[in-house]
Automatic annotation (TrEMBL):
The lineage of its organism: Bacteria, Bacillati, Bacillota, Bacilli, Bacillales. Keywords: Membrane, Transmembrane, Transmembrane helix. Residues 100-120, 138-163 are annotated as: Disordered. The keyword Membrane applies. The keyword Membrane applies. SUPFAM superfamilies: Apolipoprotein A-I. This is YtxH domain-containing protein. Gene3D superfamilies: Apolipoprotein.
Length: 163
């Protein structure tokens, strides 16, 4: 029971790290005063880094799953020896439970890896959309400023002519 709580806490901690990293990186990039091109470049760099990290996290999850499977196999072997002493019926039950545990562990690690990849892809799409929106807003604002500068330039030229 205690071991299960530790595994759950580790999973929650990893989820927190993933979400915190994504939110922190996106916030930092969106709040930085940069041009649209620089922002898109930075966002794409961060998305690539996130994809790389999600791949690393997937590997970590797979390694942990392998470690859990290995530990389960070791425990199964120990239990099997005790069970052989107690009776052949117990041996069958232990093997069945170990196989179920291995399958459940593999399925859980596969699901976590897939969910991590899906979230990274979702964030990639969100970040790209945000970058496009930011670039559009920046262009619109630049056009407004340019129009105002042209108007003021015309006014100054008119005033200069009258002097």
């Amino acid at each position: 029971m205690s071991n299960n709580n530790n595994n759950n806490s580790s999973g929650n901690f990893m989820t927190g790290i993933i979400v915190g990293s994504i939110v922190g990186a996106a916030t930092a990039l969106l709040m930085a005063p940069k041009s649209g091109k620089e922002l898109r470049s930075d966002l794409n760099d961060q998305v690539e880094a996130l994809k790389e990290k999600s791949g690393e996290w997937k590997e970590t999850v797979m390694e942990k799953g392998s470690e859990l499977t290995s530990t389960a196999m070791e425990k199964t072997s120990q239990l099997q020896q005790v069970a052989m002493e107690k009776g052949s019926n117990v041996v069958g039950v232990v093997k069945e439970k170990a196989d179920q545990f291995r399958d459940t562990t593999k399925e859980a690690s596969d699901n976590l890896a897939e969910a991590t990849k899906e979230k990274a892809d979702e964030w990639n799409e969100t970040v790209n959309q945000a970058a496009d929106n930011m670039a559009d807003m920046t262009k619109d604002r630049a056009d407004q400023v340019q129009s105002q500068v042209e108007t003021k330039t015309d006014e100054v030229a008119e005033n200069a002519k009258t002097l």
